[in-house]
Amino acid sequence: MSNNEIKNSELDVQTEQTNRRDFFKKAALGVGALAGTSLFANEAAGEGDPNIMHHVKWGQTWGDPVDKNLYGIPSAYEHNNTRRGTKLLASGNLRASIAVAPIHESQGIITPNGLFFSRSHGGTAHVDPNEYRLMIHGLVEKPIVLTLEELKRYPSVSRTHFIECPANGGQEWRGPQFNSLQFAKGFMSSAEWTGVYLKDILKDLGLKPTAKWMLAEGSDNSEMGRTIPIDKVLDDAMLVWGQNGEALRPEQGYPVRIMLPGWEGNLMVKWLKRLKFSNEPFFAKEETSKYTALKPSGKAIQHFYANEVNSTVTHPSPEIDWSNLKDGDRVEIQGLAWSGMGTITAVDFSIDGGKNYVKANLKGLVLPKSWTRWSIMHTYKKGQVIQLASRAIDDAGYIQPTVDQETLITGVEAVYHRNAVETWEVQPDGKVRHVMVRSQLKYDKETGTMSIEGKA
Fold first, then answer.
1. pLDDT at residue 90, as a whole number
2. Pair 237, 324 in one domain
3. The whole model's pTM is what?
4. Is residue 338, in this structure, part of any structural domain at all?
5. Of 233, 237, 310, 341, which has the fewest Cβ atoms less than 10 A away?
């Protein structure tokens, strides 16, 4: 290239930059009617945002070749969007523990496979699909052992459902323990599952009339086993091998797990190896010593399965607060609602801790036994303290209870199936903290019962 060509090229760049400055300065003169901070305020002052005034660095160099990451990875700038664990949730070690999902970062109603919450009782098993076998026996006419290939010959279906650990929010029975949405409500995720309805397999095998219960057993070293009533088996129970368009991840039970839409996650046995049909429940360890609910009377509830109607505010949260907002900014408050009983029909939203509610907007797909996204627009007032709460309603007629409505039935010693209204308090500086709104409770020592004296 000649010296004249180089000079002309440099002149073209300078002219382009000058033209861009002139454009933004002229445009800034006519933006007084825009609400909020003008995009052109700096340009009007003669300064100029370098991210607009100049070519960005990533636009001036080659990008990565298409074959650099043959299995795609997230942007390096999304390094905080990960599952997280804590020793507080571990049963002695992190092999019998849970990694919670970052639902504050969630978009829509599908959780990416790499962020899907994970619960193990003996660590993640790594199963060779070529050696995988599934035995189906007991009260069936034709007991069978299936390979993975043979299982996949059945007609497949794809359905979108959430999985929720029944201990989701279980730390909050007495009061807020984690000032974090991820640790308070991240024991759940949602995905599209691909597999076969179990009832379609049983049509081939023949289920004996005396079969009332099914044992699902895993092949990991904990040999997780749970008893499932036959009504659920013949309704919408699935054996799944696909999640969000690909094979299950090892931590999700690769190559096969059972899916029981809407029911507690512990029932959805991973690394599935055996299904046995019987005329009575098996009273496995996880449904006797664990996954029961202690009532105030001292008796425990056993064999309760569906996760009740529930919801939470996801934006704002302690992780994503409003500290950067200015007075008068318009902002979208968002959240999730879900029910193992059916389909979400409405979400009520409150900014005063549940004293008054308005209807929120349901967004996107509204599916049975699936996450439902909701939102409402809000004008932020700097320095104001507000308490954000949501209350979900489903088509089975269930309404999410207050803390004290739930406590009156189950007391505060339970661990599982907590679905009371949750409250986030926005502080004067825009930061968010987890609070619990309570009523006046009266305890009768003679009868051992509680009653509500006042309103929340």
1. 66
2. no
3. 0.86
4. yes
5. 341
